[in-house]
C-alpha cells in the first residue's frame, strides 16, 4: 500500500507535466522519454521507495555515511557480493542506452557518464535517510553499467536511428 502512494504520485507527475510536454515534440521523443521515465521509476522503486510515506520519519534515525572502501564486501567475502555487483551493473545499463536517445542526434559519452554518475550519487546519498545502506562500490558498479549501456547504444545506433526515424514519419 505504501508503494501505491509513490506510484500514484509518479503517474500523476507523468500525466500532468511530462506527457503534455513530450507529446508536442513528436512520437519519437514521446516514446524515448516515456521509456526513460518508466526506467527511472523502476530504479526509484528498487532503490528508495516507499518515499512519500517515509518522509515524516527520515530524521528519526542516525544517518549512516557512505562506505568509502571500494569492494570491501568482495575483499572480505561478506554477503552475496557477486549478486550485488551484477545487479548494480545491470541496473544502469538501460540508463547508458536510453540517455543518449533522449537527445536529438544522440548523446555524447561524457554527458551520459556524467548523468549516470549524478543519478547514482544522488541515490547513494539519499538512501541512508530511508534506512538503507550506501556504498562506494554501488557507485562504481553503476558507472560500469552506464558505460556498458552506452556501448550498447553505439552498437545498436543504426537500429535505434531507423526506429526513431520511422516514428517521426
Please supply descriptive tags for the structure shown above:
169 residues, 6 helices, flat, single chain, 71% helix, mainly alpha
Please compute the radius of gyration using only Cα atoms: 18 Å
Strand content: under 5%
The overall average pLDDT, rounded, is 93
List how many beta strands DSSP finds. Answer: 0
Oligomer: single chain
Explain what you see.
The chain is an all-alpha fold. Helix content is 71%, strand content 0%. It has one domain. The protein is built from 6 helices and no strands. α1 packs antiparallel against α2 (27-47), α4 (81-101) crosses α5 (109-126) and α4 runs parallel beside α6 (136-168). The longest helix has 33 residues, at 136-168. The model has no long low-confidence stretch (mean pLDDT 93).
In a nutshell, what does this entry contain?
This protein is mainly alpha-helical and 169 residues long.
Produce the secondary structure layout:
Layout (H helix, E strand, L loop, with lengths): L1 H22 L3 H21 L24 H5 L4 H21 L7 H18 L9 H33 L1
Helix pairs in contact: 1-2, 2-4, 4-5, 4-6, 5-6
Amino acid at each position: 500500500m505504501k508503494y501505491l502512494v509513490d506510484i500514484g504520485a509518479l503517474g500523476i507527475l507523468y500525466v500532468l507535466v511530462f506527457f503534455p510536454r513530450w507529446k508536442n515534440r513528436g512520437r519519437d521523443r514521446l516514446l524515448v522519454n516515456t521509456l526513460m521515465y518508466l526506467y527511472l521509476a523502476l530504479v526509484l522503486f528498487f532503490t528508495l521507495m516507499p518515499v512519500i510515506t517515509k518522509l515524516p520519519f527520515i530524521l528519526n534515525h542516525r544517518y549512516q555515511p557512505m562506505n568509502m572502501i571500494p569492494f570491501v564486501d568482495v575483499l572480505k567475502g561478506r554477503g552475496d557480493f557477486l549478486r550485488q555487483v551484477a545487479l548494480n551493473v545491470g541496473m544502469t545499463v538501460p540508463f547508458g542506452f536510453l540517455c543518449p536517445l533522449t537527445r536529438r542526434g544522440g548523446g555524447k559519452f561524457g554527458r551520459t557518464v556524467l548523468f549516470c554518475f549524478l543519478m547514482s550519487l544522488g541515490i547513494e546519498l539519499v538512501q541512508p535517510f530511508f534506512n538503507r545502506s550506501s556504498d562506494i562500490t554501488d557507485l562504481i558498479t553503476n558507472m560500469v553499467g552506464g558505460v556498458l549501456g552506452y556501448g550498447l547504444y553505439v552498437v545498436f545506433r543504426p537500429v535505434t536511428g531507423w526506429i526513431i526515424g520511422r516514428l517521426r514519419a
